[in-house]
Amino acid sequence: MSDEKNRATAAALLPLVGGAANVTSVTHCMTRLRLGVADRSLVRDDALKALPAVLGVVEDDTYQIVLGPGTVARVTPEFAALVDAGRDAPPAPDDPPAAADRTGPTPSALSTAEELAAQGAALKARQKARNATPVKLFLRRIADIFVPLIPALIGCGIIAGLNGLLTNFGVLPALVPALAAIASGFMSLIAVFVGHNTAKEFGGTPVLGGAVAAIIVYAGVAQVSAFGQQLSPGQGGVLGALGAALLAVQVEKACRRYVPEALDVLVTPTVTVLVSGLVTLFGLMFLAGEVSTAIGTCANWLLAHGGAAAGFLIGGLFLPLVMLGLHQALIPIHTTLIEQQGYTVLLPVLAMAGAGQVGAALAVYVRLPGNRSIRTTVRSALPAGFLGVGEPLIYGVSLPLGRPFVTACVGGAFGGGFVGLFNQLGTTAGSTAIGPSGWALFPLLKGNQPLGATLAVYAVGLLVGYAAGFLATYFFGFGKQALADLNAATDPGAAGG
């Protein structure tokens, strides 16, 4: 039954993005189906947003349909199969409703929620244009290296948490070593996967990027000295793997330009691995190791000494960082912390931004009793918001309204301040994986205290974020005139809704 539902969702999505012939690529991340589309004008945004399975759409370097965690991983293969099956078929002619969807409803037919959605889409388009700078495009490509690794990080993180529970309670002791091996195996080789994905993303041969990165985790590097120090397996971690694979791509491309075709199959891979490997051993591993150590030290110091102030600042600024596209720079930092310490102390603080967003949306719902349209949007988006999927609330409610986006940031700041304060007091809350947020983060929590204390700090932090976002939005989220206008601008027959 579940497979039929996923196939039905995929079948409903395909014609609304212009059919198989209009789809150039199909991938997914934690919550979004990411599509490359040949002709953007064939995508019917309004009809997509109206589908029950769709939580929202985001237009970035790819067209992204928010389906939520779990659902997207099941719908994507069904969608890809339909695209493969129908790619050679001629596209079906548009019917009149399709044309209406593309041109958009007339102003007289617009409800307030639709106007906000249109305004949110315009804001996203403008932000996308601002984000198309070389630095931000580079950060986006770095993020694309790590996004495919998130499912393994989550799975291994949850298994590690389960193993910790078995250890703490002394249950099934014979199973503990096996679970430890399962949970740690991926992390011990994560550098290889990073190297593989880096070469793939930047136009090199993926297996050569993985081969060079594998040097970092090879036990024999302990026999090599660099900068007067003995190297250790894993030194430099994912940052070293990233640098090594980037270098390998450049060496490989240079070889392709100058090596005769008859010798390419022998010379290019040999020179690529040899040159990149030597530079990795006698330079990159040491330098990346120093940077990785500094990242871990800085993150721990920031929350241990900055406490509430640091958490307040980090939690409050995360949503603007997302809007600017700069949050992608945090992904390698999270991964480095997980690799070093077993968890990242930054993610639970950043997750408070989502809590502030939920609190702000609840206040919008309460403050607009006369606007059934917006209240319906809030109701439909809240379940995803509680699970850490914030796009429907951000782009459908708070950002187009203006002030509620700012007050949502205030909620995130107070939640982050609470988590940061307890970090300073000695109870660290961290996450063993990246990707989930909100309530979905609970199975991945880990800290320096018993699990109950870590769960309590995070749970109360969420409540603080909800409450602060709600109160800030309730009292400061609307001007008097805006409040009156929004309560008056309701759908026909919606009075009292």
Question: What does it look like?
Answer:
It comes from Streptomyces paromomycinus. InterPro entries: Glu_permease_IIB (IPR036878), PTrfase_EIIB_Cys (IPR018113), PTS_EIIC (IPR003352), PTS_EIIC_1 (IPR013013), PTS_IIB_1 (IPR001996), PTS_Sugar-Specific_Components (IPR050558). It is found in: Cell membrane. 68% of the residues lie in helices and 6% in strands. It is mainly alpha-helical and 497 residues long. The chain folds into three domains: 1-87, Gyrase A, domain 2, CATH 3.30.1360.60; 144-301, no CATH class; 319-488, no CATH class. The strands form three sheets. The protein has a four-stranded antiparallel beta sheet with strand order 1-2-4-3. Helix 1 (2-16) crosses helix 3, helix 5 packs across helix 16 and helix 12 crosses helix 13 (330-341). The two termini are 35 Å apart. Residues 94-111 and 491-497 have low confidence and may be disordered.
Characterize this entry briefly:
This is PTS beta-glucoside transporter subunit EIIBCA. This protein is mainly alpha-helical.
Total helix count? 20
Query: What is the count of β-strands?
Result: 8
Low-confidence stretches are 94-111, 491-497
| Fraction of residues in β-strands | 5-15%
Q: Rough shape?
A: globular
Reading the helices and strands in chain order gives HEEHEEHHHHHHHHEEHHHHHHHHEEHH
